[in-house]
Amino acid sequence: MSARYSLHCILPPHILENVAKHGDEAARHAAIDSLAADHSLRSARLANAIVTNAQLGPQYGNLLDEAGRGVQRRTIYDCHQSEELRSATVARSEGASATGDVAVDEAYAGLGATYDFYYDAYERDSIDNRGLPLNGYVHYGHGYDNAFWDGSEMVFGDGDGPLFNRFTISIDVIGHELTHGVTASEANLQYFQQSGALNEHFSDVGGACVKQHSLGQTADQADWLIGQGLLGPNVQGRALRDMANPGTAYDDDVLGKDPQPAHMNDYVQTTKDNGGVHINSGIPNKAFHTLAITLGGHSWEKAGVIWYSTIRDPRLRSNAQFRTFARATMRNAGQLFGSNSAEVTAVYDSWHAVGVTIQR
Amino acid sequence: MQIEFERAGGFAGAVLSTTLNTDDFSSNEAQEWEALVQNAKLTPSSVPNDRPGPPDRFEYWFRISNGPGTEETRIGESVLTEPQRALVRRLMERARQPPR
């Protein structure tokens, strides 16, 4: 009879995950039990994945990992100006050549660039890390001024013309939307107030990194603009958001002025926009930009990997506030680079610079 | 009847708004606006203010003042009825115009 280990409430889930994968048999079972006893969705998912791998054995696990990973499965649908996705028709499927319809081809390329970014940078196999086929719907609605991830696919409007161009025009818009899918399958940050602003923020980080990765840019070479090219000819502005200078992207008669704050002193309390999720995201956006510039090189290799592992951290709750998220980035930076590393100091300084105060 | 309207959220997160008073219109146009509002059947606070919504969807806000009565409604894009869409379309035509 094997000894029973009691690991409850002592070890955080990521360590349990390690024990479950690499411990001796008794320790593995205890770790899996502990993960299952935590009724959060994240732990259930984690435990399921480990049990599946454990049952199959490592020799199959490797095969499972290799087969089909890193393979894109894109389909672009044409909505023909309808808002009914069911009536859309296939415009371009994986491997097909360009159609000449610029929205179709931009969506195809943008989904591909986003997939490539997540796979190359983090070995993430699509949105759900299980090879989810990527579907994009273009020409949605009449002059529709928006793009969104509806929980399982991407939808793009053509824009009204004078205010907004087509929403496939900026690769970072596509990266932003697909990153909502990544967040939904990881920390699942609630789309409301600070946790919602963090959800928006992580999508802007994803969008910026997808663009920088596709252009091979380092942090100091990047423009840090979100939605560059999206604003129509009548609008005074250079983009929708500026991660380097929140609050300065546009100032226009119709759209008003970019409302993003760059510091906690200017945090906007509002009931609109799910509690200002597109507004207060300026604060963590600026922190990320500062960190990426400080650490240098490609944004996704240091700042990005800290953020990505934070969003996957089972200890990060879906109602995380700026400070709890900031603390989680410190913890993850410590695990990745060492707790006395320059990276940890830079993370601390970047949050401090935007008024998100945490303990070292 | 006074109609105050805002579109917030969306990927852009920029607010577009317009306000109109049907007293400023011809009686035909005023009746048309009032009919659009009646048909939309805006019930006060269709969507609570304190629940997470779906990412990057639009959020519409209306305040209709009719004599002494004022009703506010907030509706998410994904649950608009067809008559509500018709009202939003007309209001958005105005909201996109530069201020005079």
Written account of the structure:
The complex is a heterodimer of chains A (360) and B (100). Chain A is of the alpha/beta class and 360 residues long. Chain A has 12 helices and 9 strands. In chain A, strand 8 and strand 9 form a beta hairpin. In chain A, helix 1 packs parallel to helix 3, helix 2 (25-37) packs antiparallel against helix 3 (41-56) and helix 6 (171-185) packs across helix 7. Chain A is globular. Chain B contains 2 helices and 4 strands; from the N terminus they run ββαββα. In chain B, a hairpin with a 2-residue loop joins strand 3 and strand 4. The two termini of chain B are 22 Å apart. The mean pLDDT of chain B is 90. Classes of the chains: A alpha/beta (360), B alpha+beta (100). The A-B interface holds A 145-151, 160, 162-164, 167, 173, 176-177, 180, 190-192, 196, 199-200, 203, 227, 230, 234, 240-241, 250, 253-256, 259, 271-274, 277-279 and B 6, 8-16, 49-59, 61, 95-99.
